[in-house]
Sequence to fold (378 residues):
Amino acid sequence: MKTLEPFDKIIFVTRPVFPTIEEVTEKLQDIWNSKWLTNNGPQHTMLERELKNFLKVPHLSLFNNGTIALMVACQSLRLSGSVITTPFTFAATPHVLSWNNITPIFCDIDAETMNIDAEKIESMITPQTTAILAVHVFGTPCDVEKIQEIADRYGLRVIYDAAHAFGVEIDNQGIGNFGDVSMFSFHATKLYHTVEGGALVMKNEHVKQRIDLLKNFGIKNEEEVVMPGINGKLDEVRAAVGRIMLNYVDGERQKRFLLKKIYDEELSDVEGLKLMPRCAADVKLNYQYYVVRVDEKIFGRSRDFVHDEFKNFNVYTRKYFHPLCSEYTCYRQLNSSSPANLPAANVIGRQVLSLPMYGDLTEDDVRKICAILKSFRR
Ligand code: T4K
Fold:
């Protein structure tokens, strides 16, 4: 076999989708003409409407990032006490609870989907529990029916961190239709972005009104400030970029779907590698991430070895999500952080590796990444 050469440029885990500079300049000209830069301008109004249609949800409120949006979601539902969540997520998820003076209670994850294990939620509920904060990890939908059933039985609220799930649908319904409130992140590294940004989507119009107040300092009008709000507003420049980027989502998703098929084709027979979970036929995925799990016993090499060795080939993979949130110094003293409570998460956190995934990768790039990965096997 020919020796594998390193890539001659760095292959990152992802690259943002860029609109053309001409498209941005044209929109900037509109903004300059309007002399309106932020605080509910015309670009903001139009993007809220367009996104609501795209995501097939009844109400939507734009934010300056997903983290602030999630903080406001907790405030809008008046959550307190403790909230059951997953340790297998980005730092922002449990941190928004802490910023709301709420204790995160970590529940183990499902070994297949890597989402919160709905079967285990009930045993974690205490009199202090006010909500479930679940994450559609890597865009794979949670068990939304089971979670809602538990929430209804115990009078709990449900928030979804849908940061990875832009455009995901179940049976033609936008993923944002489940639970009380869902958050989408529009960070530059996401399938759809506004440079930085995010949104909350909700079924209830009153919740939308409260959220709109909370993200604008609680200001109702010139005379009244009705609640302790924060500044969560998305400005006109980023809203305009978001309007352009809506034209890119379907194309980018399709490109990633083709790359996913190549990864699957090249890696499905490799012993010791577990690929992304299969979803029900009525689920429309977004292919934002491509994640493998390395079983050291069978593959003959650890995930960390693979991650480090890839760098010698100029391939920069990421260990999303390692360490687990339950291993952070700020959370590891919690009872629910004990590894005995989180057996699946503790295994998976040591196996996962996000491989490069973005539309500008070529088919040959992906085949070469797979060949490099396979060459590590012992
Ligand atoms: N909940 C979940 C489940 C999340 O995953 C996230 C964010 C949130 C909540 C919070 O939403 P936001 O407040 O961010 O809207 C990245 C993103 O910054 C973060 O948004 C995302 N999750 C997380 C999973 O990934 P890092 O620290 O890994 O990003 P970074 O800067 O290392 O970028 C990754 C790669 O992307 C780089 O190696 C190169 C490439 N890149 C990145 C940027 C920013 C570029 O090529 N150009 C760029 O401009 O967190």
Summary: The longest strand covers residues 129-135. The pocket of T4K is lined by residues 12-16, 65-67, 89-90, 92-93, 135, 161, 163-164, 185, 187-189, 198, 316, 318, 320 (CB under 6 Å).
